[in-house]
TrEMBL record:
Pfam families: LMWPc. PANTHER family: ARSENATE REDUCTASE (PTHR43428). CDD domains: LMWP_ArsC (cd16345). Residues 3-128 form the Phosphotyrosine protein phosphatase I domain. Coiled coil: none annotated. Signal peptide: none annotated. This is Arsenate reductase ArsC.
Length: 136
């Protein structure tokens, strides 16, 4: 059975949504991707939606929405996006913090940079799961 990975931050509107989309794109055969937060936004960050569509041809507006932690199933791995204040807690077998800055309100360059970092980290996570480097 594939492990379930949750990408979490406070609002579940930008970084965690990008990570969910890229997890589905690059890791579909290795793990199931979810994202959630302690608060929701009425819509996903539209700059994030546009950048992910431009670079990866994935339309997050069609496939994703802002969700609370209790809206997703129990997970094996929790990835915190980087919360400067207080990160939500979700029980899991493995947890890590990717420490990403929130690009909300910043330039497209910042969104692109964030997307590329997430892509690299998702691919790295795939390798670590494949190599049994993460205790599940």
């Amino acid at each position: 059975m594939k492990p379930k990975v949750a990408f979490i931050c406070v609002h579940n509107s930008c970084r965690s949504q990008m990570a969910e989309a890229l997890g589905r794109l690059f890791a579909l055969d290795i793990f199931d991707s979810y994202s959630a937060g302690t608060e929701t936004k009425p819509e996903i960050n539209q700059d994030a939606v546009r950048i992910i569509k431009d670079i990866y041809d994935v339309d997050m507006n069609k496939t994703q929405k802002s969700k609370l932690l209790n809206d997703i199933p129990e997970v094996d791995i929790v990835i915190k996006m980087g919360c400067n204040v207080v990160c939500p807690f979700l029980p899991s077998k493995h947890e890590e913090d990717w420490g990403l800055e929130d690009p909300t309100g910043k330039s497209d360059e910042e969104f692109i940079k964030t997307a590329k970092i997430i892509e690299d980290k998702v691919k790295n996570l795939v390798e670590r799961i494949k190599n049994n480097e993460i205790e599940l």
